[in-house]
Fold:
Amino acid sequence: MFSNTLLKNSAATKSGYTGMLNEQTCFVTYTNGHLYSFKMPDENDPKYKIWSLDTLPIECPSEFKVIEGKEELAKTINEAINHCKLLVLASDPDPQGVYLADLVRKMSGYKGPLKRSGIKTHDPKRLAEQFSSFENLDEYRQYLPIAASEACRSMLDYKFGINLTRLFTVLAKKNNVNMRSPAVVGRIQSSILSIVCQRHYQIVNFKPTPFYNIFYDAYRNVDNTKIRFKVDLERITDIEEKDRVLSELSQEPVKNVDVKEKEVFESPAEPHKQSTLQVALGKRFNYSPSQVLEAASANYDDGYQSYPRTDDNKIEFSEWARAEQTLQGLLEDIGIGKEFINYSKRTSFVIRAGEQNDSAHTAILPTGKSWDKEKSGIRWEVFQEITRRFAMQFMDDFEYEHTKISARVGSYSLNATGNTIKSFGWKQFEPSDDMEEKEKALPIVNPGDEFTGTPKASRSSTKPPKRFQQHEIIEALENIHKYIPESHQELAMYFTQAEVCGLGSPATRAGTLQKTINYKLLEISIEKKKSYILPTKMGLSLYDALPYEITNLSLICEMERDLTFVMNKRKKMSEVKNTYDEYVNKTVNHYINNPDDFDFQSPIQVTGYECGVCGSQLIQLESKNSTYWRCQSCGAATSDFNNKPVQNANGHGTACQKQHLDKDCTGILKTFVGKKRDTNEKFVTLKCSVCRQFSYPKRDK
Structure:
């Protein structure tokens, strides 16, 4: 689209396009995603192929490699870059996109003039405006701190993840833990695991506390109009205290009736950024964050909307000014009449003319391209949601009258509140709000009206917190201050600032959540058509064994703050890198010298019966009508016969009976087919998965 829109006399080449732009000969090329990545440890030295404590800690990476299959593309790009007089980087405008483009520049060795395109859409008109002159492009130096921060983030993620994953996996296996996958540790993965496990333990350890709600049903003397007041009290848990309050309330008259009314104007909901889009569609349709991001990215690639991997909800002044042009062909498609739109209105999300946005991002907005695909499915829902939120910025406020009636009975304060809707405004197009059902209007009451009434109490109990749904994990990362312990309140306060976008990059949160599920640390449970995130046994075991500064999120949040400081020029990249490089080295050395401190309890109970699908252990379970066996890892099930699992002829599930490292071996015997050295005759026996010793099964006589 870029070449077709901007280049005159464009011609396709093997890896891009050539043509004329602003009377200059230009070459346009694409990296098609990542072009370079860090070399893995074993690519630098074969000794790292075997995971061993002897090779830890592994240092921060310094060498890059071309992504497999892109060698010719990299060669062509490097040759083209080094023959140009001006290099313009126009990668995705998020920090990772800035870093990846900067890495291409560095690997090419280019030293000439640089410019940067900050365009956030594939819309041809917007592209043509920005590239009408090379002077309209951004000076590249303002993006260097962003690239430095992302480079530091990549190096620390590598150092943190590779060292701690290898360290804790090796330690677990040395303790003969039956593991089907590595103990994966990552900066954001471990944070997601910690958030889910913390909630799990809150639910498991929850003990309901009964309490009493005290309210007062008052009736106006002249017409018996009823108002239910809440009594202003702290929660009452003692039955004697409840009875005393009811007795005192029943002996006193209602006095000092007062009425206060105020008009409330509620501005339109914010334009969407990536996280709010994922949350909105997750709540409404149970879409996963990954599904929403994939659909939004596809819409962006097809030119329907602006860049979706954004952590800001601001609208550039130029986008506000052209809103009528953008929306005129879209409103009918999403069911909004033109009479509801006032294009002269400007909400607080619009950046004033001439002002610079502090963020490199802006809200996800429609480009004006009409939807020409089937009006169903997730991509259509994403398109509707983004367009509707943008249109709402030009609608009337939601207006209602808030009424508060207060009174006193003896020493007790009574309050009743209600709302009367005056104008729905933008709310009538918000699918998640059924305001007519929520409206609770109070009867008309005048100060001084006389009431008599009866106090009442209802018994209730505290409820445990709910399991997280997938979109709520994204919310949790965005509002990470809620999960930082009280001992680190200064750190928590930092993450409450408006310009701080939470933990991790918005562009990668959904993918990281999915990876944590793929590594079997978390699992999805479907209940009443909703998807909830639960920790697996493996996930809980790893959470319980990890260092406290990781599981309480303080270390990870400090790292995130410092990476942001690099971007804001408040800290040097080298300072931050050295700080956390040192932490990883100290942690590795500590656990190597004190392996018993890693108290990893095997999530797999050894029963002696092996799963025929994945080789893990089967466990006996009971249903309402029968007994059966289920794999503790992959979930495969088989029936029961005489308290043993029914297995195929090749299946063996016997626990090893030999000694290994001066204690009973915990391995499982597996079928082994070999050949005798002298006769080359095949034989079948059992071989232990841990100690590797042979056991010869008894034959029936």
Summary: Confidence is low (pLDDT under 50) at residues 648-652. The chain has five domains: 2-136, 151-206+466-597, 210-267+398-461, 274-392, 618-695.
